[in-house]
Description:
By secondary structure, the protein is an alpha+beta fold. Helices cover 30% and strands 28% of the residues. It has 2 domains: 21-133, no CATH class; 144-178, no CATH class.
Amino acid sequence: MKxxxxxxxxxxxxxxxxxxxxxxxxxxxxxxxxxxxxxxxxQSYLSKDNIKYQVGDMIDLGNASNPKNFxxxxxxxxxxxxxxxxxxxxNKKYKIASIASMNNTVxxxxxxxxxxxxxxxxxxxxxFESSLTVKEIKHNGLTSDEALETLKKAKDKLDLGLxxxxxxDKIKVELTPLIK
Length: 180
């Protein structure tokens, strides 16, 4: 009985603490042959730019890499039935349905929110950071450089008397954690 209680406690601890994924965790993963359906699932991901993405968040697809389709984002039904996403899906919002990780990459599944034959499909990126880099997926917040630039502009406004010290301090508190 004691062993069962100990095992239950360990399993609950692992499941509770493994819900959030960070860029550092992904980089430190050991590469091993894992099937897509066996990849660990997470509730959130903290990106290289310290922006948190969570299951249920809305995310913007950017512009496709070429006029016809995306390069890093796929229309997915199964591993045997996927294709690069056509450019008709660009510049629209989609809901994050799941976050998974394997082989040092982060995979996001986005819901299409459509009926008919497309309801069994999803939108997936198998390397989320690459999708952000090529701007096929737009950042869900400010990058470190953007946060720094915004803070500098706020400081200029403070110096010119356009905003109060309290307004500047509020902006500084919000942006400082994003600046590396």
